[in-house]
């Protein structure tokens, strides 16, 4: 029975014809054009900032608007989506390594680990791992709702978090558009962190058993720190392989990688701004209960 369940999961997550034959294209796929991306980013940022200004004018005190069970339900959905994308990306990466191992014989510089960090030049956004990269890109739109929640809850630094979510959408689009290297490891790290953090937020937000005792645990902060550390290591690996000649020809999507690096630096600033100056506080209660009203988002 366990073997059958594993085989079924592997088929639906890595071997289904729609996954194997996936190809990124501006036609035939949702949200796959530059026009849509730029339009969404402009509308999203403008809406959140305008709403923040309106609420600031109408509500002199930082009283949050009641959102009921919506944040907890969103956290549960994000945890489930992140878990599926993590499993699909992991199984798809293993399947791609298995299917292409024959082509690496006699090419000592190419290994599965190096492939994960550095796609060969000319790599196209097609196949299993890019199907899940597309799924991850779509999930960024769902994740962007956290920025709207931050505005409605009247959180401090809401504008910075809105920018962080907008940047996350843009980066996921660039990964697909330019077949950017290291995205497989980045997606695995990000979805694992989100599955843990959002699962914990749902647990606390829904008031499940022992949630009150765990409310002060800095789970989101730990996940964010681990994610930032993983991204830093991946960037160092790409630099070593592309500019150091370890990849023997460079890495795919290096131009997008440079822009991605700048966005990651900006996200690091947002992280330090939200956590460094005001202490550790986020949606799962924060590590400092006295300041739990300043919830933060991943």
Automatic annotation (TrEMBL):
Keywords: Fatty acid biosynthesis, Fatty acid metabolism, Lipid biosynthesis, Lipid metabolism, Membrane, Transferase, Transmembrane, Transmembrane helix. It is found in: Membrane. Coiled coil: none annotated. GO terms for biological process: fatty acid elongation, monounsaturated fatty acid; fatty acid elongation, polyunsaturated fatty acid; fatty acid elongation, saturated fatty acid; sphingolipid biosynthetic process; very long-chain fatty acid biosynthetic process. Pfam families: ELO. InterPro entries: ELO_fam. The chain crosses the membrane at residues 34-59, 71-93, 158-176, 182-204, 216-242, 254-272. GO terms for molecular function: fatty acid elongase activity. One of its GO terms (cellular component) is endoplasmic reticulum membrane. It is a multi-pass membrane protein. This is TLC domain-containing protein. It comes from Oryza punctata (Red rice). The lineage of its organism: Eukaryota, Viridiplantae, Streptophyta, Embryophyta, Tracheophyta.
């Amino acid at each position: 029975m366990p073997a059958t369940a594993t085989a079924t999961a592997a088929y639906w997550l890595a071997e289904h014809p729609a996954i194997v034959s996936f190809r990124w294209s501006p036609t035939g796929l949702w949200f796959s054009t530059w026009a849509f991306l730029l339009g969404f980013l402009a509308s999203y940022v403008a809406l959140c900032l305008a709403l923040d200004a309106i609420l600031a004018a109408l509500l002199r005190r930082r009283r949050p608007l009641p959102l009921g069970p919506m944040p907890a339900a969103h956290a549960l959905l994000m945890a489930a989506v992140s878990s599926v994308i993590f499993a699909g990306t992991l199984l798809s990466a293993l399947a791609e390594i298995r299917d292409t191992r024959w082509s690496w014989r006699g090419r000592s510089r190419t290994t599965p680990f190096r492939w994960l960090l550095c796609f060969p030049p000319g790599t196209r956004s097609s196949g299993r791992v890019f199907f899940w990269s597309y799924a991850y890109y779509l999930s960024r739109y769902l994740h962007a709702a956290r920025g709207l929640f931050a505005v409605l809850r009247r959180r401090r630094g809401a504008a910075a978090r809105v920018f962080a979510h907008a940047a996350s959408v843009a980066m996921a689009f660039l990964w697909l558009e330019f077949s950017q290297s290291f995205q497989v490891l980045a997606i695995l790290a990000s979805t694992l962190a989100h599955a843990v953090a959002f699962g914990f937020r749902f647990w606390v937000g829904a008031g499940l058993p022992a949630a009150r005792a765990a409310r002060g645990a800095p789970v989101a902060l730990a996940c964010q720190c681990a994610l930032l550390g993983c991204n830093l290591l991946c960037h160092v690996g790409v630099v070593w392989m592309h500019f150091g000649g370890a990849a023997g020809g460079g890495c795919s999507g290096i131009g997008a990688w440079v822009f991605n690096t700048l966005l990651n630096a900006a996200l690091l600033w947002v992280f330090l701004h939200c956590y460094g100056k005001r202490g550790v506080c986020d949606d799962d209660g924060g590590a400092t209960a006295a300041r739990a009203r300043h919830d933060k988002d991943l």
